[in-house]
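Task: sequence design from structure.
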């Protein structure tokens, strides 16, 4: 007979190959059919609420790996929470207004000027919805579970209505005001920008040193003295109205080449070197404070340039005399305001020089640098022109340089309630912990927030103007506009006249004729998304404010974390989140930023097509995401290999449970052998470690712990020696049912533990597990850690055995390399051990031959009795030789007893007995 047919080999339909790109869409189709999100919500209803509030991605373009990292992290957390006693709704959102969408339509050939603002906005809305649909499909393909049919969109009327309420509440408290101030201005976008819309890049700029003649020295300086300033923005020279010096530092007048120049004493050496002054003679030393109110002469226009005292002046670089143009710099503006200077801004919306810069009108500001330098040179005022590369602010959308430009803008005050915001920061749980200091410093140092934008696609600033120009923001007008937006959407602002947007019969003392105008600016998109705590958390049933967690990239400390914090503290007095968790950026395998020019971009859509979403998700779990993370095809290949091992572990367990019914065959813990109980103790420890790591959001710990358990505890130990029982013994052999019980416990626990990270694979495995009743693993709870009896003693004893086993495996490997043996079953192992190790081995009732996977085993004496050829290792001296006897045709054990049973001459007595029993049963 063919003895192979008598073996209980693994049988399962669970495939060895994952084939995830083809299989996952089918699993997702089943989830759709089941409406898995709603089933999970129904199952967890009534539990404590856990709300992870989604920071809305921008509705434009395909997903990148940063999106995949972010959304997968959120999904892992939500899935875990719903399996550990929480009700965890997830409402995804999209940020839908802003310049990029306007630009995309322009690229597509839409002529904005040929239509009304309202018509153009409708095209923007249509485009945003198209992008949302594309991105939603891609997010769902990653396996992200949520209320995808009811996301929050910042363009929805109900959301816009709540945003108007936030604006109104801030205005009511006096936090909203209109003012003329220098703001970041993007000529390429033709709009003001907030700090969060700025990124820094290196540019090459002209660096000039310019001499201003003293007109009135106030008895301190002679009128033949020249004050030397330094600037990298020659285009601002036409707007110069003053020169700032530091009152606390000393200045010197130096004589060189027949001229006298004033510079800071601390910078004399540097300036002398740059300007190539030879034999410069110090003829006067003056404290900075004595220079106040000296009047210099503008080198191009001859007008007065006032010398002022300012703490912002340093001796880090330049000359210590700072060219001051109140219309083009924050410090300039503040000192100019203090000294009563005008705010002169000689650049228009498009970045063109205006009539306030005679001789340069109509030139783009950057192009004006050269002719301005030439004019200064002709006037004898240009002392030096060179070029330097330095970091400079750029528009984060257009990637082009921005300027400081004084314009009339709407601002949200930060200064008025800065202390309240800083207090709120202290009450938040920040992960990583440095997030608190980062946010504290950003709030401490930030100026008031410029919230107006000169664009079309966004939420209008709900302000009316009376006949005398007075701004009208009242509770009545705010409520009315909010109601209008809720009913009609914000497009109504651009479709109706001001009078039709005001409450019926509205009057105002400053408009005796009943004539009103409306604001044409829209709000900064950070105000849109920063109002989501009101528009979503507070307004939507089943959620709560504050949220338990906000989770975004580390750039959001200056973005969404920041704007949400400001608006929430303004409206509610506290942060909109109890916790903030941030992740780093995704870089390539060499730590470089991904870019098309480098050709190192990895797109999640391509990875999903080639490897599957679960591979991306496992990669997310494998990295230390709180810092910048790396991804490459090689890294994904390594992750795929770990996935393969995990999948094979699942397959081995399923294959060996094909005849196991937990209701009938499960063995009670106390009836298991020690080695089986030891494995359950190890599993129990894994459950504890994994659950605690999920709670701390440390997913890499889970990745390594599960991988180690599968590879070391199961594959290399338990499942390896289990084959001699699972395949060889009769189906109902007590040892076999005990081992199946352990494998069953491991299988169920691992499937649940990995479900948040590998939801497709976990659900696939779940369909094959015997005895489970839930239709998806997502509808179950995580395994609980339990106090197992004698766990510590068991672990101590069997860990000692595992160390000894490690030595035995090492000795077997050496014997194999020396060609003494082939496979380990052809070996006999003789141990020479100390008393402690002998006692350990004597206390183990399980077959040591099985545990070591050898055919012969004996303890022959003490270590000192070991023969010369024995390998002396830490726990024993080990002699390995070829086992005596014949190889059993059925179990491959080598023993002299093969052939003792004449009916089965090629079998060992154990196998002969099993086969006879099977034949009787047949």
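Answer:
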């Amino acid at each position: 007979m063919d003895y192979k047919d008598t073996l209980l080999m693994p049988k399962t339909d669970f495939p060895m190959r994952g084939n995830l790109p083809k299989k996952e869409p089918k699993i997702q189709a089943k989830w759709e059919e089941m409406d898995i999100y709603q089933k999970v919500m129904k199952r967890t209803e009534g539990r404590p609420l856990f709300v992870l509030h989604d920071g809305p991605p921008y509705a434009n373009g395909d997903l990148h790996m940063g999106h995949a990292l972010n959304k997968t992290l959120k999904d892992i957390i939500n899935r875990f929470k719903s399996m550990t006693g929480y009700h965890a709704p997830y409402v995804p959102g999209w940020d839908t207004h802003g310049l990029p969408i306007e630009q995309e339509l322009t690229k597509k050939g839409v002529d904005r000027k040929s239509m009304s603002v309202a018509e153009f906005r409708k095209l923007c809305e249509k485009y945003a919805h198209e992008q949302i649909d594309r991105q939603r499909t891609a997010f769902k393909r990653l396996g992200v579970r949520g209320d995808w049919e009811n996301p929050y969109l910042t363009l929805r009327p109900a959301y816009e209505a709540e945003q108007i309420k936030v604006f109104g509440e801030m205005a009511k408290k006096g936090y909203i005001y209109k003012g003329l101030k220098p703001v970041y201005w993007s000529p390429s976008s033709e709009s003001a920008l907030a700090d969060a819309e700025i990124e820094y890049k290196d540019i090459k700029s002209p660096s000039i040193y310019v001499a201003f003649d003293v007109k009135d020295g106030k008895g301190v300086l002679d009128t033949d003295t020249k004050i030397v300033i330094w600037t990298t923005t020659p285009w601002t020279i036409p707007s110069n109205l003053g020169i700032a010096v530091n009152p606390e530092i000393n200045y010197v007048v130096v004589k060189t080449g027949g001229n006298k120049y004033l510079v800071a004493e601390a910078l004399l050496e540097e300036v002398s070197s740059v300007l190539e002054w030879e034999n410069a003679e110090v003829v006067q030393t003056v404290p900075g404070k004595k220079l106040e109110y000296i009047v210099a002469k503008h080198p191009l226009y001859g007008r007065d340039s006032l010398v002022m005292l300012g703490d912002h002046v340093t001796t880090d670089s330049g000359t210590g005399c700072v060219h001051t143009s109140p219309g083009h710099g924050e410090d300039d503006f503040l000192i100019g305001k203090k000294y009563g200077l005008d705010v002169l801004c000689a650049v228009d919306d498009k970045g063109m020089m205006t009539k306030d810069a005679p001789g340069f009108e109509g030139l783009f500001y950057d192009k004006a640098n050269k002719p301005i330098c030439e004019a200064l040179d002709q006037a004898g005022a240009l002392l030096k022109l060179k070029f330097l590369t330095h970091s400079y602010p750029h528009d984060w959308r257009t990637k082009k340089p921005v300027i400081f430009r004084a314009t009339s803008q709407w601002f949200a005050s930060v200064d008025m309630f800065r202390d309240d915001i800083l207090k709120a920061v202290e009450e938040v749980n920040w992960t990583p912990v440095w997030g608190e200091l980062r946010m504290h410093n950003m709030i401490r140092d930030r100026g008031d927030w410029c919230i107006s934008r000169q664009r079309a696609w966004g939420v209008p600033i709900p302000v009316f103007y009376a006949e005398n120009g007075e701004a009208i923001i009242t509770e009545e007008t705010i409520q009315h506009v909010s109601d209008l937006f809720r009913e009609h959407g914000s497009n109504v602002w651009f479709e109706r006249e001001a009078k039709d947007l005001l409450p019926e019969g509205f009057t105002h003392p400053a408009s005796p004729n009943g004539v009103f105008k409306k604001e044409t600016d829209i709000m900064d998109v950070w105000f849109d998304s920063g109002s989501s705590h009101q528009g979503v958390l507070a307004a939507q049933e089943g959620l709560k404010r504050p949220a338990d967690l906000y989770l975004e990239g580390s750039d959001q400390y200056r973005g969404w974390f920041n704007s949400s914090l400001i608006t929430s503290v303004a409206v509610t007095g506290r942060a909109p989140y109890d916790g903030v968790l941030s992740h780093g950026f995704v870089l390539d395998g060499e730590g470089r930023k991904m870019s098309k020019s480098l050709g190192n971009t990895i797109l999640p859509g391509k990875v999903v097509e080639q490897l599957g979403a679960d591979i991306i998700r496992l990669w997310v779990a494998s990295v230390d995401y709180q810092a910048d993370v790396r991804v490459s095809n090689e890294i994904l290949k390594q992750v795929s290999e770990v996935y393969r091992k995990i999948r094979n572990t699942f397959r081995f367990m399923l294959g060996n449970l094909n005849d196991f019914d937990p209701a009938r065959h499960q063995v009670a813990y106390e009836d298991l052998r020690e080695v089986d109980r030891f494995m359950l103790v190890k599993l129990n420890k894994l459950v504890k470690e994994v659950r605690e790591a999920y709670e701390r959001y440390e997913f890499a710990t889970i990745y390594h712990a599960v991988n180690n358990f599968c590879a070391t505890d199961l594959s290399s130990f338990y499942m390896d020696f289990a084959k001699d029982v699972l395949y060889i013994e009769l189906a109902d052999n007590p040892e076999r049912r005990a081992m199946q019980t352990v494998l069953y416990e491991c299988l169920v626990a691992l499937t649940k533990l990995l479900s948040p990270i590998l939801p497709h694979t976990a659900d696939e495995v779940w369909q094959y597990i015997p005895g489970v009743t839930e239709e998806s693993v997502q509808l179950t709870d995580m395994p609980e850690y339990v106090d197992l009896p004698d766990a510590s003693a068991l672990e101590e004893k069997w860990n000692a055995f595992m160390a000894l086993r490690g030595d035995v495996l090492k000795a077997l490997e050496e014997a194999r390399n020396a060609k003494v043996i082939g496979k380990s079953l052809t070996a006999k192992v003789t141990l020479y051990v100390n008393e402690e190790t002998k006692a350990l081995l004597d206390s183990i009732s399980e077959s040591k031959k099985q545990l070591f996977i050898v055919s012969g085993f004996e303890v022959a004496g003490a270590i000192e009795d070991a023969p010369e050829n024995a390998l002396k290792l830490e726990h024993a001296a080990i002699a390995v030789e070829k086992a005596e006897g014949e190889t059993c045709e059925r179990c491959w054990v080598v023993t002299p007893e093969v052939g003792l049973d004449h009916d089965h001459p090629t079998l060992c007595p154990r196998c002969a007995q099993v086969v006879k029993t099977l034949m009787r049963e047949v």
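The first helix runs from residue 20 to 34.
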